[in-house]
Amino acid sequence: MLVNGKPQTTIALSDRGLLYGDGVFETFLCEQGQPLLFDLHMQRLQRGCQRLSLSLQDSAVIRQEIEQVAANKDAVIRVSVTRGERVRGYRYERTDMSFNRIVMRDDHRPSPSSNTEQGIALYLCQHRLPQHAVLAGIKHLNRLDQVLARSEWDSDYAEGLLLNDLGEVIEGCMSNLFVLRDNIWTTPDLSHSGVDGVMRDYLLGAASECGQSCQIDKLELVDLLEAEAMFLCNSVIGIWPVLSFQKQHYNSVQKVQPFMHHLHEKLSILYPAGL
Amino acid sequence: MLVNGKPQTTIALSDRGLLYGDGVFETFLCEQGQPLLFDLHMQRLQRGCQRLSLSLQDSAVIRQEIEQVAANKDAVIRVSVTRGERVRGYRYERTDMSFNRIVMRDDHRPSPSSNTEQGIALYLCQHRLPQHAVLAGIKHLNRLDQVLARSEWDSDYAEGLLLNDLGEVIEGCMSNLFVLRDNIWTTPDLSHSGVDGVMRDYLLGAASECGQSCQIDKLELVDLLEAEAMFLCNSVIGIWPVLSFQKQHYNSVQKVQPFMHHLHEKLSILYPAGL
């Protein structure tokens, strides 16, 4: 683990990431030490830094530190940027652009192959996301919503679905959602809630190459119950087709194959090959 | 500084307080090493722990650690409780009640005497608080709203006022608000946004002893512009009367005297004596 490039396993108690959740993070999947979707991750990291008036980060430095920590292995690497250490109080000096950059490694634990081959059971979370345009889209360190939502179910479900306080469908607890209706994949609008996922962005861009149509729009629960197929995605798990949700069953495994083949062939063998 | 009772200035990078803001905190004002309003602080801390399914804390241990760190001095002591160190992912085991308890000291820097003698200029923040009943009232570690709001103004204002996304008045950036109209002090309802302050709770309970009437209710901006007096409070600053807000001037310094005298005489000489 590195803090500002130095091997370190701890951080100062006065770090604003710990005091206030004042920072952003990214979780990179690395194949033999090389981060996948690096540019999209960096774009979101910089968007988050801009939104919070944090110092923009040097891509070359972050790539080098990820590679150092991943050490040529398949690994999941978390990069966090906090506003560094300051005096007591919410205030920070806008001219002071100091920060702490934390690079941590987790071993890569691939999810069960049944998640991709048979699809997953999707839980409907009772916890609702607030609407909050200023914080929507970015991956900041204030993640109590996800912690509370994730505590609602055990291992009988692979993922949970989050609605906002209006009842609109937003995302999975740690993933984004795509829903197939009338031959168009719709992924929810995230301008007021949710995290704008790197894999979601990638798939929106790659859809036509996969022979699929995608759009961003509002989604209600009823849209999901009438849908033909659904999948969840993020840059670590790749794609999980949804087998069942609220007593409905979906033909998702078949329908996601074009996306899965694309990821496996074009991006990395770490993403499941599909059927 | 102490972590779980041991002298320590750092914490593990895998602490969930740092990873997700998964925890709560309290800021105690200590007079010659003794924490003021200790029971009210502990009640809120336990409420927060309950809400987040964190381990309830031992009051005697926390008091002892505060006294140890305060070392008989006037001091501000922050006590944080995080969900401890875990594996990657939002999930935690509900049977695992481990935590990290952090006790940190700041020197006590009394605010300018003009804040209490002449009153303060109150800024109106553009940043809006989301409505979020599950997280409202408690003092959790997800404080990006306060960080963003506090970055809007410099030292020309002593505090900023926060509205929710409906435009209702909620609180100060680091304090609670009381507004005098028709001889009744009203403090905003915090069931959907805001932090239920320890000093606010104390003053609601002490009002009749101070010869004042208090109530909890919704407040709109127009109510503030038509008010006779206003003050902000928290357990570190005590009471700050509002001199000016949005081109209005208020007779707050006179009106807050009963409360200020009470705090100074009954609680601590660290709270300003008033006029």
How is the topology of this model organized?
The structure is a homodimer of 275-residue chains.
Chain A: E1 2-3, E2 6-7, E3 10-12, H1 16-20, E4 23-31, E5 34-35, H2 38-51, H3 59-70, E6 75-82, E7 100-107, H4 113-117, E8 120-129, H5 144-150, E9 159-164, E10 169-172, E11 176-181, E12 184-188, H6 198-206, E13 214-217, H7 221-225, E14 229-234, E15 238-245, E16 248-249, H8 252-255, H9 257-267
Parallel strand pairs in A: 8-9, 8-15, 12-13
Antiparallel strand pairs in A: 1-2, 1-7, 4-5, 4-6, 6-7, 9-10, 11-12, 11-14, 14-15, 15-16
E-strand count of chain A: 16
Name the assembly state: homodimer
The major pleated sheet of chain A works out as: 9 strands, mixed
Identify the biggest protein-protein contact and residues per side: A-B, 55 and 55 residues
| CATH class term of the largest domain in chain A | Alpha Beta
What integer is the average pLDDT of chain A?
A: 96
| CATH domain fold name of the largest domain in chain A | D-amino Acid Aminotransferase, Chain A, domain 2
* Approximate strand percentage of chain A: 25-35%
Proper CATH architecture of the largest domain in chain A: Alpha-Beta Barrel
Structural category of chain A is alpha+beta
